[in-house]
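2 proteins. here.
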Amino acid sequence: MQFLTSPTEKKTLEISDLLDPQLLGEEVCVTGAIHTIRDMGTVAFVILRKREGLLQCVYEESAADFPIKELKEADTVKAYGTLAASEKAPGGIEIHLKRVTVLSRPAAPLPIPIAKAKMNISLETSLDLRPVSLRNIRERARFRIQEGIVRGFRDYLTEQGFTEIHTPKIGAKGAEGGANIFKLDYFHHPAVLAQSPQFYKQMMVGVFDRVFETAPVFRAEKHNTKRHLNEYTSLDFEMGYIDGFEDVMAMETGVLGRVMEILKRDYGRELSLLSITLPDVTRIPYVRFDEAKRLVSEKYNRPIRNPYDLEPEEEALIGRYFQEECGSDFVFVTHYPSKKRPFYAMDDPTDSTYTLSFDCLYKGMEITTGGQRIHDYNMLLEKIERRGMTTEGMEHYLMAFKYGLPPHGGLGIGLERFTMKLVGDDNVRRTTLFPRDMSRLEP
């Protein structure tokens, strides 16, 4: 009888392993996909694509035991050779090939030039060919950056005593209300796809005090813009025993600080490849909703058209204002009008037309919505009644309040939109692995 314990140490090396100076001059073994081949006759450069980046291999006819014509782009291989230093190679190292074992071969030529720094293909073509287009190093780098954002979010909140939870995405009722809900038949019962984990987050505050989740949410909004998706990843947290919604904003500031710290420390290759300068998040200004509208109206001579919400152009101007006045790419806009916020948002006790809520704008675009929630059972029922809503389908949610919840608040960050602004893209689909919008269900 045989047993498995843990992964056995592989004899193949990764790029980070090869950077050990003691390996120079030694024979090494690596695996990877052939990204491109530059054949110059008796010498050729074979570039391997590995999980950490590109690795240059040098083929010399006199030293290798195979003809270069045996290798094709997109072959996956195991390569053996001598490690050498090279100032011109990526990472300052290269492998002088001796032999290669082909592990697999493509059945057809690549449909797009993934080895080019910029593929110069349309967004639609890139999305149609997503399993291949993502092999481009720049395309791939966006999602390494996105990984770093999630790592920072998770690491910081875990340190702050939050418990990670996983809530259902099929439910009986939407958390946000309205018509933007995907409805489905669930074993002959009406059901919906979750607009957010809001109800569950609040319920779990009564269990763990502080909770967070990273998961998909669904919005049946008939938008066809560069900033909207019908399925996106939301980074959510909810925290109990707060003194005010400012505690929630302060926690997000800490999250953003950790994100930038991790990106700077562990994602230097990707930051350099995409020419990203990380923003300063040590101090983030905040401003009331009505005051923000007034400031940009006066400075940029733009009339206030909608007193209850921010138009995209206003968000952009608010971002511009606080970059010019405070040198900050981020700004918290607080005290949104009650009529534009969900029923569970806590109204401002000094003026119930506004709420103790906020949005976080980054480079002139909303990436976060959050605030303090109503925690009193009777107050919540009164607001539901004032809005002409029914409590049908919310019995379990209301149970948490009936049996006591502490003052609490939380937020949700749109991961793809945050990534888009951080890497400098102009369309959220570029920072979504497999986008879902009004016209796209595949791949």
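next one coming up
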Amino acid sequence: MDKRCKGCGVALQSEHAQELGYTPKAAADYCQRCFRIRHYDDVTISMRTGIDPDQVLKQIAKMNALVLWVVDLFDFEANLIAGIHRHLPKKDILLVATKRDLLPDTLADEKLGRFLLERCGAQGIHPIGLVVCGDLRVGSCEQASIEEIKNAIAMYRGKRDVVIMGMANAGKSTLLNALLNREELTTSRYPGTTLDILPIDLEDYILYDTPGLSRMDSYLSLVSDAVLKTIVPTKRLKARGYQLYEDQSLAVGGLVRLDLCGGQRVSCVAYFAPGLQIHRGKQEKADGLWKTHMGELLAPAISNDPASLKKYTHGALKGKLDVVIHGLGWFCISGDVKQLSVYVDRQVDVTFRKAMI
């Protein structure tokens, strides 16, 4: 069978039911894995960590193409690719920031744009242009966003093809479907949906979809598929604010512990998926709470052992700071804090940054 799945790009086959590309119907356009994701939101084979990002970047580097780098605004820090210009030398990169509709509408687009370019610049990344997009799902698509992307492609493409790249779950296939105005490519909340480079012939050029790049310092790569439904937001985030007047500890399920010590009149605003419960208590009782209730009251959790967590610390804070948990969300903290500590799974990274909002 010399045919590829229209949803994920993998070669179709009808011999091995437990392997990628399997379909029981020789004439099928989609593999069984894509069929079940599209119709039942069910991942039969998880490929979140099965794709080598270096190989994907090497293939992109060989293309004579404009690069549309898609980033997820909700999980922006984990979407940054350090040294992207080293991987893609002399490539023109157009930054496309998706999922604007998840962020508070009180955040001005101009302020958001400045923030994104400043964060990119701090990593030595200098895109030739920036487009910020809202909901791109076919049927509810913000048409102005699509027109802006099309105009940017026309402006920067020249006579080249276009390749779309980004981290897993950034919204690449959703963006492509919106550009095509049809739900052809498989999309889902599960990272690793697209498995091979997919060429799509347009009127003037070829548009390439690529497998999502994965990184192991994010909760998206570590939690089970069932927990993904809890931690990946699908609607606009509701800020959960806390006013703290003594040493306090906040627990995001059993995944994150935040201790704020030595502060007075401290404001802490949490931006996480609504399905994640946040527990607040005195910092002096936090060790006992986590030792007794991790994985039970404090759920979801990857482990039931607090020793599986590692600690990040930040010194005295005066002003406003975001504490970003890769793959999960962030806290925005303002006020006078002598020290803050963050505990996450040993494989997960935390970024301290200038506040986005």
